[in-house]
């Protein structure tokens, strides 16, 4: 039994190492394989329905990183683990599943958070450059509240179909910002 457990842990860490990038050379690592991460549309499937998102080409590092993680299977069987009061839903790699690098900030003046915006979360501690989390993202459900995120979180896409599904996730019963019944999701790249 211990051998099986050890093999499982080793295989899990081998997978995670494929997801991680060199934390010092994130931009170079993503740009090196830019031809592999060209897609811009994804489908998010949940028990409450599906929705589509389009990623903005003006934020190439965020777009490439997101597509890269989708293609590597990082977002399979993940959860929307946070219902942000009045603001939106958050999902991705939570706590122990965090990756070891950050994405340099790519703020675009006319890419402001609005209802349906897709943005990356950010760790505040020890992050004066306001670099983004590589895997934790959120979707805005309230435009009025979204204004406070401008140039604090990088917006890198938007929901293009199925916003009613995002609203249904947002309205799911929660306690202390955690959904009572977890909302699992899978993300797949859509053909252009």
Quick synopsis:
This protein is of the alpha+beta class and 192 residues long.
Pick out its properties.
single chain; 192 residues; alpha+beta; Cyclophilin; eight-stranded antiparallel barrel; two-stranded antiparallel sheet; 5 helices; 10 strands; globular
Description:
With 192 residues, the protein is of the alpha+beta class. It has a single domain (2-189), classed as Cyclophilin-like (Cyclophilin), CATH 2.40.100.10. It contains 5 helices and 10 strands, in the order H-H-E-E-H-E-E-E-E-H-E-H-E-E-E. The chain has helices at 2-19, 26-32, 60-71, 143-146, 163-170; strands spanning 41-46, 49-55, 78-84, 88-92, 117-120, 137-140, 155-161, 174-175, 178-179, 183-189. The strands form 2 sheets. Strands 1-2-7-5-6-4-3-10 form an 8-stranded antiparallel beta barrel. The chain is globular, with a radius of gyration of 16 Å.
What secondary-structure arrangement, pairings included, does this model have?
Elements: H1 2-19, H2 26-32, E1 41-46, E2 49-55, H3 60-71, E3 78-84, E4 88-92, E5 117-120, E6 137-140, H4 143-146, E7 155-161, H5 163-170, E8 174-175, E9 178-179, E10 183-189
Antiparallel strand pairs: 1-2, 1-10, 2-7, 3-4, 3-10, 4-6, 5-6, 5-7, 8-9
Signal peptide: 1-19
Pfam family, one: Pro_isomerase
Enzyme class: isomerase
């Amino acid at each position: 039994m211990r051998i099986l457990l050890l093999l499982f842990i080793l295989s899990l860490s081998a997978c995670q190492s494929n997801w991680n990038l060199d934390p010092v050379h994130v931009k170079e690592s993503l740009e090196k394989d830019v031809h592999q991460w060209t897609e811009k549309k994804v489908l998010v499937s949940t028990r409450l329905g599906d929705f589509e998102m389009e990623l903005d080409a003006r934020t190439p590092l965020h777009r490439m990183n997101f597509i890269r993680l989708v293609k590597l299977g990082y977002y399979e069987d993940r959860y929307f683990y946070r219902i942000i009061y009045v603001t939106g839903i958050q999902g991705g790699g939570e706590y122990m599943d965090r990756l070891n690098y950050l994405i340099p900030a790519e703020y675009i003046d006319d890419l402001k958070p609005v209802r349906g915006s897709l943005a990356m979360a950010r760790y505040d501690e020890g992050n004066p450059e306001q670099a983004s989390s590589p895997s934790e993202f959120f979707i805005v459900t309230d435009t009025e509240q979204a204004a406070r995120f401008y140039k604090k979180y990088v917006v890198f896409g938007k929901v293009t179909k199925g916003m009613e599904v995002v609203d249904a996730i947002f309205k799911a019963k929660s306690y202390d910002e955690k959904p009572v019944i977890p909302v699992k999701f899978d993300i797949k790249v859509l053909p252009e």
